[in-house]
Specification:
heterodimer; A: 2 domains; B: alpha/beta; six-stranded mixed β-sheet; elongated
Chain lengths: 371, 457
């Protein structure tokens, strides 16, 4: 039966209240995976609620169709409460734990400050040695490394990158222990594939087949489209970096690479995706109905989108202007933004990807167990 | 032309009339947040179809539908009108989709109606949002907080309506009026005419704005009534629910697995008469007929999880006496009731999914299915009150949705009715899920078309 836990946050208690109402109504069961997952339960412990909160894609459809939405006395606002609960879970599962507090502060301004700060440090470090390095005109093989030496680029960035990955994996482990680990979902290859498929297709940003009521009450696929641009743009950039790493370490081919090379084509396409996607998502966010949103999360969400956009913008600018004297400055700025992105990755909105994937895997496992 | 009300029937009328070229003003008594009347709470539409589709699992021919209607209403229906509605029902989901309403593919349906009914994705508010968006796009004017209080009548001809808006009464002239303003279930004084003081303890599942004002205006003006003032659709809902607008979530579905006792801690009806979808609608009335209009459904831990989760947790106790105290029942009588029932339970093979013949012998009254001893603590008790869904008393209409007046049933010149205010023509009593939405849609569209013809000529 129900347990009262003095540690429960307000959002956790509110989510329990809401899920009890929703489970007695069930009108939204066709809209996304969260409601059928709710229907598999009769009581809602912290593990269940954390899982359901991370399964929720925040599309807000269930708010616009809710007969109990405020000002009804039941005051049902599922997207708002679950987004607050998600944010709390990001903080709780952060690794190392004490950095969870960074989520509170990881607003737009701070994130940008970090990125600019890093760009400045990089620029100054090498610019002060000899202004001719930063403002010189470098072309041909190894041009980038004449501005910032190979070791100074590869080692710090490699470490930051590995740290970000490790911290997010640890967060995922913490998440899984606290959710599926306690509710006993049975993992299988098919469940993993099912969850991954839901991520790759964003099936649950489809509102049951007609689009989400986002940013307003009208059905639209805009959010899914812009998220696809963002996600696949990021993945293409990631692929570009991976291919370039292989070129360098395996074949000994030194950057910069030709405009027609695989890393540059992948990176260019990815960069365009990261201009369109985050800009579109920010534009939608700006117009979105404020009622079903947790307003205090705006800064964290926007920070990632703005940073992704700036990484793409500086990356593409570097590509276009790499044979001019602006190259040194652009390289420093671009690398500063990339470093800022990866440093803040495990303590910002990006972690939603890890937890959403895991929640969708758990959902696929539960749905299979039920069939 | 004016449309009084802004639920399903009203918006179907407004959209159809506007498409036919009429200038349409919809007058909604509720504020925007609570627009849509009882249609905010609907779930599905029952319609005839020849084969399974994406939204229903099998065929539901008109003939079968007609038999179901005759069965649930006990023949209290206007047969030609009923046939017309059922024939037209075939095209209703397509029309709804064309207005932007979406349907849900059958899941493990909460009400087990996957073959006969198409479920609206997101429910009634989603449907109404689509209708309002469509009406807006067509150029229909919708005024909120605007209650129609009077019709400016000249015999059976209407010249306009008096509207209460911003605290002021104002008269609006019109060439035709569609009355689609619902029943009177939120008008407790009127309910008392049929139910006496008992109505004070009824909870209203839907909108608090259904006061029946225009129904009264029409009846006073000589419109012919259908059905009776004490006919209403009522189901047992949790006694702790809000007075109004609690909707679907307040229902309690455990009756068939329980024993139900009244204020005096005695049983009063066979809880296991039939499966719940066929019995829930009689239990509202049954509870309404008990002293203080309250009852308690009692289960033990064996039955937890067999029915839809409830919005409020049950009272819970490890002994029958303790549960009695928590529910405010006399512990001695309650214990006797439980022990008499337990003694009368005959052995059998319990099957929660269908009538299983597990019954009592010698209990008063007998329980004829799903009878199991209450012997496994903890014990749970759900307090029940009658929750009114809608009323049946309405005005008679013809196949053009014209309100009929006087002894000879003369059709009104330009007054049309649709929805709950005339649904009693099709169902004088009884109900089948998804029928009200259908009647509202079919008559709303007829009323819209006919009123537009009068308004544009």
């Amino acid at each position: 039966m129900l347990q009262t836990d003095p540690q429960k946050t307000d959002a956790m208690e509110e989510a329990e209240r809401l899920m009890t109402i929703c489970n007695a109504c069930r009108y939204c069961e066709g809209m996304c995976a969260m409601f059928p997952a709710m229907e598999r339960r009769r009581f809602f412990g912290d593990a269940d609620l954390t899982y359901l909160a991370n399964l929720c894609h925040g599309c807000q459809g269930c708010y616009h169709v809710c007969q109990y939405a405020p000002p009804h006395e039941f005051a049902v606002n599922v997207p708002k409460t679950l987004s607050t609960l998600r944010a709390e879970s990001y903080e709780r599962f952060a690794w190392p734990g004490f950095l969870g507090r960074a989520f509170h502060r990881n607003g737009l301004v701070l994130t940008l400050a970090i990125a600019f700060g890093l760009a400045l440090v990089i620029g100054l470090t090498f610019g002060l040695q000899d202004p001719g390095i930063i403002f010189g005109n470098h072309t041909g093989e190894g041009a980038f490394y004449r501005v910032i030496p190979y070791e100074a680029m590869v080692w710090p960035f490699g470490l930051v990158f590995l740290y970000a990955i490790a911290a997010m994996v640890m967060g995922g482990v913490n998440y899984w222990r606290e959710t599926a680990g306690k509710t006993g979902a049975k993992l299988s290859t098919l469940a993993v594939l099912g969850g991954a498929w839901d991520v790759l297709t964003l099936k649950n940003l489809g509102g049951g087949g007609h689009g989400c009521t986002y940013p307003d009450g009208k059905y639209s696929f805009d959010r899914r489209r812009f998220h696809h641009f963002t996600f696949y743009g990021f993945m293409l950039c990631f692929a570009a970096t991976s291919v370039a790493t292989v070129y360098d370490h395996v074949f000994g081919w030194i950057a910069p690479y030709a405009f027609t090379s695989v890393p540059v084509i992948l990176g260019t396409l990815g960069g365009i995706g990261l201009l369109i996607g985050p800009a579109g998502l920010l534009w939608l966010k700006h117009q979105a109905d404020p009622e079903p949103q947790a307003n205090d999360l705006w800064g964290t969400d926007a920070a990632l989108l703005v940073l992704l956009f700036l990484v793409a913008l500086t990356g593409l600018a570097l590509l276009v202007l790499r044979e001019t004297t602006a190259m040194g400055t652009l390289l420093a700025v671009h690398l500063g933004f990339v470093a800022g992105l990866f440093l803040t990755l495990p303590y910002g909105k990006m972690v939603h990807g890890v937890y959403r994937l895991l929640a969708l895997i758990q959902n696929a496992a539960e749905a299979r167990a039920r069939d | 032309m004016l449309v009084a009300g802004a639920g399903n029937a009203a918006l179907c009328a407004a959209i159809t009339a506007r498409e036919a070229g009429a200038r349409v003003v919809v007058l909604e008594a509720a504020p925007k947040e609570f627009r849509g009347g009882n249609s905010r709470h609907i779930r599905n539409v029952r319609y005839a179809h020849d084969a399974a589709t994406d939204y229903v699992t099998g065929p539901y021919p008109v003939e079968e539908y007609y038999d179901d209607l005759m069965r649930v209403t006990g023949g209290k229906t206007n047969e030609p009108l009923a046939r017309m509605v059922l024939e037209r029902s075939k095209g209703v989901p397509d029309w709804m989709e064309a207005q932007g309403v979406h349907f849900q593919k059958p899941l493990s349906g909460t009400l087990g109606l996957g073959r006969t009914n198409a479920f609206v994705l997101g429910g009634g508010k989603a449907m109404m949002n689509a209708y309002f968006a469509r009406a807006e796009e067509l150029g229909v004017t919708v005024v909120y907080d605007a209650e129609v209080t009077r019709l400016m009548l000249d015999g059976t001809h209407v010249k306009g309506a008096s509207v209460l808006h911003d605290g002021k009464e104002q008269e609006i002239s019109a060439r035709a009026v569609v009355v689609a303003s619902g029943g009177f279930e939120a008008n407790i004084d009127w309910l008392k005419e049929g139910w006496g003081e008992a109505a004070e303890n009824f909870l209203v599942r839907g909108t608090p704005f259904n006061k029946g004002k225009l129904l009264r205006v029409l009846l006073d003006a000589g419109a012919r009534p259908v059905s009776e003032a004490d006919q209403c659709h009522a189901v047992p809902i949790d006694a702790r629910s809000p007075r109004f607008d609690g909707g679907i979530a307040t229902r309690v579905d455990c009756v068939i697995y329980s024993i139900v006792v009244n204020r005096d801690a005695v049983r009063f009806y066979d809880e296991g008469e039939d499966i719940w979808p066929k019995r829930y609608a009689i239990w509202g009335r049954l509870v309404g007929q008990q002293p203080d209009q309250i009852a308690y459904a009692i289960i033990d831990s064996k039955s937890q999880g067999l029915f839809m989760p409830t919005i409020f947790p049950p009272e819970q106790a490890d002994t029958i006496e303790e549960l009695a105290r928590k529910l405010g029942l006399d512990p001695k009588t309650f214990k006797e009731t439980v022990s008499d029932y337990n003694k009368a339970v005959r052995p059998g093979e319990f099957d929660p999914t269908q009538p299983d013949g597990c019954r009592t012998r010698g209990a008063t009254p007998e329980k004829t299915n799903w009878a199991r001893k209450l012997d496994t603590p903890p014990f749970f008790g759900y307090p029940l009150r009658p929750g009114i869904t809608f009323t049946y008393l309405g005005v008679e209409v013809d196949d053009k949705a014209r309100v009929l007046f006087g002894k000879d049933g003369k059709p009104a010149d330009n007054i049309f009715a649709a929805g709950e205010v005339m649904a009693g023509n099709i169902m004088g009593q009884g109900y089948a899920g998804g029928l009200g939405l259908l009647v509202g849609n079919v008559f709303g569209r007829i009323a819209g078309e006919e009123a537009a013809r009068r308004a544009t000529n």
